[in-house]
Structures are given as structure tokens and as C-alpha cells.
């Protein structure tokens, strides 16, 4: 047999080699009988795993020594915004600005020349922490950057933006903008829009003002991909349409990267819809439906936003916010509208993914999914976030057969704020992962990148401990809702494969499954829970090709 050292570039050396073996590895995957102390050899041929043998391997073929490291299925992040993350890497990133003055200087340096009538884009500002500003930025403030420019700046969490007065004038000409609820538009004391917008209004502005060309999108995606591979991510479900404007252009960008050999992951592309007309347009223009596409790029779900976010008090709650008793958060649509959109999508073989953070929005999502015509069990519709629940909602979600996409890394910065946002009696039902699992609700773990952590081990570690990166609070926040290590790995591996209808192809180290796997430097079941976040990826393989290897 031919032996290769693991530090060599196996992906290049083995081009043309169809049969390959990684020997001397320990295998970990949830609820499977491999013993942690046992060593195995994994054989794969082309894109798929052919067999798993006891180690040492006795046959012929190209063999890589796994050095007793731990082999796990590749991570599948079921909720992110990959194009937006890539644009952060490629374009003006304002996350480090500590003041308005510093942000202005960053913009001037990035654009070199500021001219009248030009477009200025920036992402990631957080004016709540600006040392020289005591209130949120408005359109009037942006005159200090360039008085006659079209400026569009997105907040760090992606749920707020501020635009300049010129851009505001353009927005006023958009008739469709009148359909966006007033709750997402800030106004001054005279009743005029002040250039500050929230949630679904932000998505509308992205879609209208910031659509990239195909080549620009491809370059941004390519910039992000090495980072995903370095964390063991081999599959993603992503909502990118708002940042490119056209689903057809988005699909073309990804499939061209695939054809060029520059897409080391599988991708499901969601279609964000503002209202039923957007779904109708997609159905009439596109012949593809959920699951259709190429070997690596497929159509995902119709994405609907039912409410906003708790930080802005725009997540729709059944009770008022404790820190803002006058607010309970708006619903973007009526129940009739949501029911109709879900039915129409289902009738046209499209899965639906609904953003619903507050319990009132979750209730609206569940009512739509309970319709017989929704075909929820067959189409595997999903509720995204579901951060505030109650016993009745957990029971109804379970009965509906819907999936829930969770983002445990949100707890890193939010666990100590929940009592401000949620009535006291519902705090125990905030991010109730264990309660949902006990109710047999299928869960996926995900990042919501770039909002949450890109690192799946941080996501998994947070789900298991319910602590932040400083190991607070002691014992974990609402510790009853901790997931086990097995449950957490399942949520970032095999569970998302069900949403792609590929549960017999992805998410396991088993014959017939894609050769998507990761080598870890520690065994998750032998690692203290508070140290799970420190486990490192040493190699990543996608469809039998090495896409990342540590230099250490």
C-alpha cells in the first residue's frame, strides 16, 4: 500500500487516486456503537465512503495515517448568510469602530476619494458603543461623511441600518416600501423618516439598493470558504438573496464556483420572500423546487420573516416586554397571509423556513404549519430561532412535525438579558432545547453567521453548557435545558441532512455516505463540557477531497 503523511497536501497528491484509506483514527458520531478507545480505517472511493475496517488496515491502496485523531462527520450549518459573511471579509467592515469619528475615518480610508452622488456601503457598526455619540445615528449625522452621497450602513447584528438623506429620497420613491410595517421605520418628532430602519425594512433596502453582480458575489463567497473549511464545515443552508437581488443570479454564482472547482462545501440556497408575489414569481420563473439543483448546489426553502428581534423589541410576543411595557413587538403579516403563503409554497413543492423569535410569531408559524395543505411532515418545514416558547407551543410544534433551527451561540451575549425581554414565567422556556428534544421536536444547531459564532465547537459547547466564553453563569443558564454532546453533534451533522432530504447520503461515517468528515484533536466524549469549545479541527474533507489541514 502507498503511505502518505497527514501533513502533506493529500488533496493534491491524490488527484486521480479513486480509492483511499484513512487509517488509525478513532470514530465519533452520535448514537453509534463505535467505542471511543477503538481504532478504525475508513475507506472511501471518489465522493463516497466505501467501508469502515478495524485498524490497522490490511489491504492495498493509498493510506493516510490519522495519528489516532478523532474522525467525525462534517459539520452542516443549517442557518447562515454566507454571502453576507463573505462581503464582510471583502468589503468595508466597521465592527472595530469605537466611535463615530473612528467610523468616519475608516470610511474615508476605504473609499480614498469621497465624491458627490457616489454610493458608500459599510457593515458591522454598533453605535450603542460609540464614545462620542449619545443617541443612535440618523440620516442627518451621515452628512458629516459626505453630504450628497448615497450612504447605507448596516448594524453589527444585521437587524438595523441607517441610510443617508439622498438614499432616503430614493427609498420614498419605492411604492413597495409602503407595505413594510411602520414598526420597522423610525421617524423624528415631526413624523418624517429619519433614515433608521429595522428588521424586514433592512432586508427590503438590501434587496433594492445593494444587489451585487455575479462576479462580485463569487469573489465574496470565495473569500469566506477557507474560513468555513478551517472549522470543519462541509455543508451550509444559506439565505443570500437580499445581498444579490436575484435568486437566478445567486444560483448562477454558486454553480459557477462549483464548475470551476472552487466550492468545497454543499450549499442549499433559500429564497427570501417579502410577500406571496415573490413566491409566485419564483414558482413561475424557476422550474426547480426544494432539493433540485446540481451535485453541490440545491434549492432550499422559501424564507419568511414573521417578526424581528428581541434587542429592538420587534420580536412579536404574546405579552409586553418587561423593560418596555408599552411594546410587545409587531407581526409582519396577518395569519391569513402566512397561511396562504405556506399553502401556496407547499402546493408547489417548496419547503418553508420561517423566522419567528417571539412566542406570538411562533404561534403564527405553527398555526400555518398545522394546515393539512401545508404538508409539514412530508416537506419538513422549519421554524427558525423560536427563542421564546411555552408548554402549549412546544406541544403544538411537536404535533406539527416541524423542525426548529436553534442558534446556541446567541446565548453567549444574551443569557443575562432574557429577563428584560421575556415575562418571568416564560424565562424557563427561553431557548428550551432539552424540552423540545423531550417533545421529540427535531432540532438543528446553527450559527446565523455572521451574527453567531462560525465555530461549530463553540455552538456545540454552548448547547451543552449554556455558558458564555467566560464560563458564566456558574452551572449554566437554565441548566435543565442543556443538550448532551450526542444531541448537539447530531444537530450539527445528521439532523440538517433531513432538511435536505439527504439523510441517507450525508451526516454519517458509514458506507454509502458522502466522504465529508473532520479530524479533531480531542474526543468530544472525553473532553470536559466547558472545554468543548476549545476542540480544534486539524483536517476537513469534503467529498473525498481534503479542503483544510492545520499547519501545526
Automatic annotation (TrEMBL):
Pfam families assigned to the protein according to its UniProt record, in alphabetical order: Amidohydro_3 (PF07969)
Keyword Hydrolase annotated: yes
Domain of life from the UniProt record: Bacteria
Domain Amidohydrolase: 63-548
Alphabetized InterPro entries for the sequence: Amidohydro_3 (IPR013108), Metal-dep_hydrolase_composite (IPR011059), Metal_Hydrolase (IPR032466), YtcJ-like (IPR033932)
Presence of keyword Hydrolase: yes
Keywords: Hydrolase
GO MF entries: hydrolase activity
Protein name from the UniProt record: Metal-dependent hydrolase
Amino acid at each position: 500500500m502507498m503511505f502518505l503523511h497527514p501533513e502533506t497536501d493529500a488533496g493534491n497528491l491524490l488527484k486521480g487516486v479513486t480509492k483511499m484509506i484513512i487509517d488509525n483514527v478513532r470514530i465519533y458520531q452520535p448514537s453509534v456503537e463505535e467505542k471511543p478507545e477503538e481504532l478504525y480505517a475508513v475507506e472511501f472511493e471518489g465522493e463516497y465512503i466505501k467501508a469502515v475496517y478495524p485498524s490497522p488496515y490490511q489491504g492495498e491502496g493509498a493510506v493516510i495515517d490519522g495519528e489516532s485523531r478523532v474522525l467525525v462527520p462534517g459539520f452542516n450549518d443549517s442557518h447562515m448568510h454566507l454571502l453576507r459573511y463573505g462581503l464582510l471579509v471583502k468589503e468595508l467592515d466597521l465592527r472595530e469602530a469605537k466611535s463615530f469619528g473612528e467610523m468616519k475615518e475608516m470610511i474615508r480610508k476605504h473609499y480614498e476619494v469621497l465624491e458627490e452622488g457616489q454610493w458608500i456601503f459599510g457593515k458591522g457598526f454598533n453605535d450603542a458603543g460609540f464614545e462620542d455619540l449619545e443617541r443612535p445615528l440618523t440620516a442627518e449625522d451621515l452628512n458629516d461623511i459626505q453630504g450628497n452621497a448615497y450612504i447605507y450602513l448596516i448594524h453589527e447584528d444585521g437587524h438595523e441600518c441607517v441610510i443617508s438623506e439622498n438614499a432616503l429620497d430614493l427609498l420614498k420613491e419605492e411604492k413597495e416600501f409602503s407595505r413594510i410595517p411602520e414598526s420597522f421605520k423610525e421617524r423624528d418628532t415631526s413624523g418624517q423618516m429619519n433614515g433608521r430602519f429595522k428588521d424586514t425594512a433592512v432586508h427590503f433596502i438590501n434587496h433594492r439598493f445593494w444587489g451585487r453582480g455575479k462576479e462580485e458575489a463569487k469573489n465574496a463567497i470565495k473569500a469566506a470558504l477557507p474560513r468555513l473549511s478551517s472549522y470543519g464545515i462541509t455543508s451550509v443552508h444559506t439565505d443570500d438573496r437580499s445581498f444579490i437581488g436575484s435568486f437566478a443570479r445567486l444560483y448562477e454564482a454558486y454553480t459557477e464556483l462549483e464548475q470551476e472547482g472552487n466550492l468545497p462545501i454543499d450549499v442549499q440556497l433559500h429564497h427570501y420572500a417579502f410577500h406571496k408575489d415573490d413566491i409566485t414569481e419564483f414558482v413561475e420563473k424557476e422550474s426547480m423546487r426544494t432539493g433540485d439543483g446540481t451535485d453541490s448546489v440545491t434549492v432550499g426553502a422559501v424564507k419568511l420573516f414573521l417578526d424581528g428581534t428581541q434587542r429592538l423589541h420587534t420580536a412579536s410576543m404574546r405579552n409586553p416586554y418587561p423593560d418596555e411595557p408599552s411594546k410587545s413587538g409587531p407581526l409582519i403579516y396577518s395569519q391569513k397571509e402566512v397561511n396562504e403563503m405556506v399553502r401556496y409554497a407547499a402546493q408547489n413543492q417548496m419547503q418553508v423556513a420561517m423566522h419567528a423569535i417571539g412566542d406570538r410569531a411562533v404561534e403564527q408559524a405553527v398555526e400555518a404549519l398545522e394546515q393539512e395543505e401545508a404538508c409539514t411532515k412530508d416537506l419538513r418545514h422549519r421554524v427558525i430561532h423560536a427563542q421564546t416558547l411555552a408548554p402549549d407551543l412546544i406541544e403544538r410544534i411537536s404535533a406539527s412535525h416541524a423542525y426548529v433551527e436553534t442558534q446556541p451561540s446567541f446565548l453567549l451575549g444574551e443569557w443575562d438579558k432574557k429577563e428584560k425581554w421575556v415575562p418571568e414565567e416564560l424565562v424557563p422556556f427561553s431557548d428550551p432545547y432539552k424540552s423540545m428534544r423531550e417533545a421529540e421536536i427535531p432540532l438543528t444547531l446553527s450559527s446565523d453567521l455572521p451574527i453567531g459564532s462560525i465555530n461549530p465547537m463553540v455552538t456545540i459547547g454552548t448547547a451543552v453548557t449554556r455558558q458564555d466564553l467566560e464560563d458564566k453563569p456558574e452551572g449554566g443558564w437554565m441548566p435543565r435545558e442543556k443538550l448532551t454532546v450526542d444531541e448537539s453533534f447530531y444537530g450539527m451533522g445528521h439532523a440538517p441532512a433531513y432538511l435536505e432530504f439527504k439523510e441517507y447520503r450525508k451526516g454519517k461515517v458509514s458506507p454509502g455516505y458522502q466522504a465529508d468528515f473532520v479530524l479533531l484533536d480531542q474526543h468530544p466524549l472525553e473532553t470536559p463540557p466547558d472545554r468543548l469549545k476549545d476542540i480544534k479541527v486539524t483536517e476537513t474533507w469534503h467529498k473525498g477531497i481534503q479542503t483544510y489541514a492545520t499547519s501545526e
